[in-house]
Amino acid sequence: MAKQTKYIIVSGGVISGIGKGIIASSTGLLLKTLGLTVTSIKIDPYLNIDAGTLSPLDHGEVFVLDDGGEVDLDLGNYERYLNVTLTRDNNITTGKIYREVIDKERRGDYLGKTVQVVPHITNAIQDWVERVGAMPTSDTGRTPDVCIVELGGTVGDIESAPFIEAMRQFQFRVGHDNFCLIHVSLVPVVGAVGEQKTKPTQASVRDLRGLGLSPDILACRSALPFEEGIREKLSMFCQVSPKQVFSVHDCESLYHVPILLREQGMIDVLTDRLKLDALSISKEIVLEGDTLWAQWREFARRRARDLDATTIAIVGKYTYLADSYISVVKGLEHAALNVKRKINIKWVEASDLEEATMHKDPLKYHEAWQHLCAADGILVPGGFGERGVEGKVLAAKWAREHNVPYLGICLGMQVAVIEFARNICGMTDAQSAEFREGCALPAIVFMPEIDRTTMGGTMRLGSRPTKFQASDVARRSAIYKLYGSADEVHERHRHRYEVNPEIVSELEAKGMQFVGRDAETGERMEILELDNHPYFVGVQYHPEYLTRPLNPSPPFLGLLLAASGQLDAYLMGEELAGDAETKLKM
What is the CB neighbour count within 10 angstroms for residue 305? Predict the structure, then answer.
């Protein structure tokens, strides 16, 4: 008989963006510390097939998976917290479900029946969850013991109604001991005296129960810990035991949320509710879980310490919504804490660095340049469209000329190439064909196998191998050593344009070395490093997608080491900052 996966559903009430993803990720992490194998699914009720065509300013970052799936940013949280590798099937959207059902109807799979939301759509949702919940997501190949399912949106939304109904039916399909519902709600603090109010949560739970689902656990978001009597009041009116009501108040960082939940007894409640004691787990795997928890506590402790700050300027075009670059921010945080530094991010809107802003808004122009000039390091992330590109070129030029550590990701690498071609190689008209089609000197060109007319899913997507060159220059490079002197690395891509191979020899002759190229053809430039610079690295791929709290991405690690003056010592194998405390696994 096949092992029955246990399911934890995480729903949200009162408001959107309440923190369901962090609660889901933190719960999964706690289960992993018990030695359990955990996977995750995110349900997004929107009609899009995937997140690939959504604007970062509208929906936050588009996260890319190994298989090229363009998904919601919450799957990035799952991968980072649980250290798993998910697939595009781990992100369910209304568009995917309806497409699957309509395709079946067109093939005649329903044998002439009237196709309806119930049972056909709801059955399709349940089948998808059950199928993906049993798929291995780690190198061990173990079938997951637990699947965390985050139900996007807010209880009561019209668009999420089919998913709520599907989960109502699903609890009977898998059985009482294999189904647990965590409802994340809000306990606002209002009034001059700062009184906590429970009515919004009561109303949300009432709506949920009216739809046929009763929460087993309440995770209540609030600015402050529960006041006296609040837990008991929520317990009484929401029909859950007081020990099943959790205060998820603001804390020092998101990395402290698992600690907060564990201290309030989350593991005991889940063990009792899902009969986790009945699962057979080897002593070796339990020991791995204990080690993971010790490492996580140390990581969170460092986050709370008063460490020396390192300032990194992020020069982007979606800086008005920090979620647009959430994986970049996490990459910096992970690297900083692993080198015993606190990260201080200065957001610089790329277009504010351009001359046009100086005439239009001098104050904004000078403030942007002040942030850039004062930074210990500069990071230029990816992006699409022409707006702000010349500002990014100027940022790359400043970093090169003033020996400021620089990391360019995707477009950030391309603007570094354009700047170098213009100002060092004498190609004054160098441009990207993305912004100037038919330009005389295309430093960046369109990838030949990509379809120009279809937007969704047509980029160079997913995990691809990059091979370091066999030259002495490549083997001496800092980025090669940061990757542990590996001949080949696998990173995730999301782009349509890349460095023109016809100008590479001229760039390398002047000191811009392309130390890593694609392993398939050797003609795609993947990694560049500048000669005679403390740290000037560009990567065509997106290393932020593979960063982990206990295992930071090498390009980010190099940037933080260089910006804090520790890179040379690290590359020579010396201890960082003379710290003899618990070392994080790197």
Answer: 11
